[in-house]
Amino acid sequence: MHSANGDLYHREREMGLLQDAVGELALGRPTVATIHGPHGIGKSALLNAVPRLLPPKTLVLRARCHPSESQFPYSMVSQLFDPVLGGAGGQGTPGPGLGEAGPTHEALLGLLRTTRSLAVDRPVAILVDDLTNADPHSLRWFSYIARRLDDLPVLMVATLPASAAAQVAEQLGPLPYLLRLWPEPLCPTCTTELVDRAFDSPVDQELAALCHTLAHGNPLVLHDLVTRLRRTHVPPGSPDPEQVLPIGAQALSETVLAWLDEDEPCASELLTQLAVLGPDTDPAVCAALSKHGEVHDQQARETLVRAGLLEAGAPGRFTHTAVRPAVLARVSAHERLLLHGRAAAVLARLGAPARQTADQLILAGCDWGIDVLRGAGIQASGAGDRESAARYLRRALTLLEQRGVPGADGDESAAKEAREREESFLDLTVRLGAIELHRDLDACARQAAAAADSPLGPVRRAEALARLASPALVSRVEGAQPFVRICGELAALPAPPREHLLRLTAQTLLTGHRSGLRRAARLAAADPGDPAAHVFAGALAAAAAAGGRLGTARRMALRVAAGPADAPEGTAPGSAAGPVGAALALTWTGDLDGAAALADRLISTSRASDDLATTLLAHLVRSEVRHRRDEHTDAHTDAEAALHLARRLNAPALAGAAAAAAARALVGLGRAAEAAVLLSDEPAAGDAHPFIKALSLQAHGTVAAALGDHTTAVRLFLDCGHRLAMRGITHPGCVTWRAQAAASYRALGEESASATILDGAPRQRGPVSRPQPGREPGRERTLLSPAEQRVAELVVRGNSSLEVAEKLFLSKRTVDTHLGRIYRKLGIHSRHELAAAIGEELRV
Known about the structure:
- By secondary structure, the protein is mainly alpha-helical.
- Strand 3, helix 5 (136-146) and strand 4 (154-160) form a beta-alpha-beta unit.
């Protein structure tokens, strides 16, 4: 049971001991009591409680020592005796206020006789606060008198800091009447009672616990904290932790931390180091920074534990979250930078882990440590901490750029230094790009562009880009351009590296370009079973399916799906182009079961390797497969997963593709209005891949048609077809825009346009003779389908095949195919003969 004792809480034991000492005084026996403890623990409060316990007529002599008076001889003794002796001294007593040169034996004897004379008629209580601040003469007197009280009714009570305990034990330890008191910190119950009393109402239990933790049972700190809380009008019943913690930090700063600076500078220095560098900092590093040695460092840690600032044991963490802000608030920005810089140098000298040193380098803003930062990036990446890895490598690149380019003075050493700088720059760029590939695709694309601009030659550039080759990067033009350019450079070499050429060509095939295709195909045919050949084959299968070569595409895709014998597909971003391309090819050729199985496997392997970009693409493919199977709920689930990953990876183009897939699935579920909102909320990437733009247009058209706006839907579907045709995607199984456009035409009542867009008019069979002179041109046109008629009309009007393709939203290859059919039906061989066959009708 903890009850109040006057104004004192949790002091029953100490008050009982003092009561016993007063009882000895009443019996004519002496006691020397010392009260030890840190600042604010209540030493003065216990000393001030002594007069209330004394018997009547006891002579009380009191003194409060202060450092400003420590230079004056006998200043403490003067405080004690002047009120009684009037400053004149007694017979044989030296005048302590006269400032003797030193505490001579005669002077001490005189003071002893004075004390004896005062204690003849009544008990004497000598109470001294902060004894360690007394002048040397008075300290000598206190020790001299304390050892000579055997037969005197004298009670001497003095307060001292904890650091003076050893000195007192050495000087007064043998005395049989010595009493040493160590007031304990307040318990939680006493703290709660004091806080309730201060607020004059019951307080929230969490607030009381927070006050106890911050004050560590120190009454003075608790009083200061509660005063600040009341001054800022913190509600005791429902406090806001965000409001209380800064107040607690300020209270700590102006009490405990100020006392620590004054009494324990080594402990204060250690606390600053732990606050700036982190509480887990190696003791050896702290010892090296302070230059005091590990023994002093350990003693300082024990002091901080006693002060309630550090937890006992290792590592020595702060007892509360408010401690570190309170310490940091007392450290200037310049001092922090210096400390971080010194810590970085010490850690590097001690061979500490690279990440630990790199953290200090970054915080200090040092202009050295590129190799340390590179090593830290590798360590962080290996541990899965890609955020820190990117930070380390970006700082290393910044330092490298700040060094500048070595002078081009023709010196061989300067040339070597310049090449080493470029090698280091390219290595750091690729490492950073490989990390950004897992967290920020736009940032990865920028690193790929920087690597493509390296002056180290096409082979070295190709080697760097091959490490960043991921089909997710080609979703935007910015990400595709470096691969297309370097692939073209590599293919032009007499003997390009086989693996790099195959992987870069696969990347460019997914962009719709064919740089290095023939050469890569020959290299792949020489060894079709290795992983690089499978990556190339998967991308080539997608390109073949997009161009309408379905048999070839399916055969190649199935071979890729089987996987190479010596390396599993999908385990690295550089290998993702193979299975992703194969899955697309199987989808576009109608093998939905095979595409779904490959997408399932790709999701599993990419998740296992934490390859979020490939997981995103696999979800998009599986959403497409499920959409074609009319499994709209599952398709929507996959599209939502892809959209979440795209936003997480900062990939706006892929986010647009995922939103398009989700919108189509919502339309299939009868939720067209929700699909419209989703598409309007997801901004389109301006430089997205044409195929992704086409998907987005198709999705917008699908939503417009579902909402009844078929005019807008037709325009969107035709624009979709135009973009696909420009990229050479002519296979109708890739994107079903034609069927959707035809349906919207029919809804508008334009049957002829619907038939034209599908090229579905019946064709006449049998031999067709050449046009005869005098035959009506209009009859020749009846042999042609509506689509062929439109092509023929535009050709006769003088349009080239490319111009016809652009106007009809077709590919040039499709236009040439139509022309070949037209020539065969009409029995002609040239555009001139075509004009002669049907041109008259056009002129009419």
